[in-house]
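hey m, so remember when u said the tokens were messed up on ur end? i reran from scratch. heres the input so u can diff it against urs
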Amino acid sequence: MQIGSRAHHPRMFMGAVGAASGVVLTLGAVLAAATATPKDAPGPARGAVVATDESRAPWVWPTGSRVVSRPWEAPADDYAAGHRGLDVPAAIGDAAVAVDVGTVTFAGSVAGRGVVTIDHGGGLRSTLDSVAPSVTAGDTVAPGDTVGRVAVGHCPESDPCLHLGARLDDRYVDPTPYLPAAEWPVLLPEDAWTG
């Protein structure tokens, strides 16, 4: 079962923040996401700034939510299926913010979806998908600056999210190590599950 699935399962979890948005996790999915380290996943380049604890995390969360509805899934190779980023639950129209200081290198439509890409220096870039951009290429942004509004695209309107991607030296990498710790799910009694 994928994180975010709403199919009935005897032991369901809801995130502390996700309870309001309906994010549902199974114990297996939570443990898999928390412990997974794909052996072939490219890691940060030498000298890259990577979070080792919350006080030193270089990025901020791109929405008010610190819940991951779908984590990074490393592809087997550059052309294989995978999930090259993570999804954060967000309502349509919520502010999407810059995760770190940088320069906007792209703000526009890709395959019909609004995308904002920010160059943070040292070969590191973040991408927010799907947004209605409020910035233009060349703008300088600081962490927490609004760069657009969450729109339909990567996730359906019935279960909206903001997709955060990271690229280091033109390779997709897991954005999770750059972020402060996510909110952990809270166990609910089985009779609290309405799915």
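this time it looks ok to me. The chain is about 5% helix and 30% strand. if urs says something different then somethings off w ur setup not the seq
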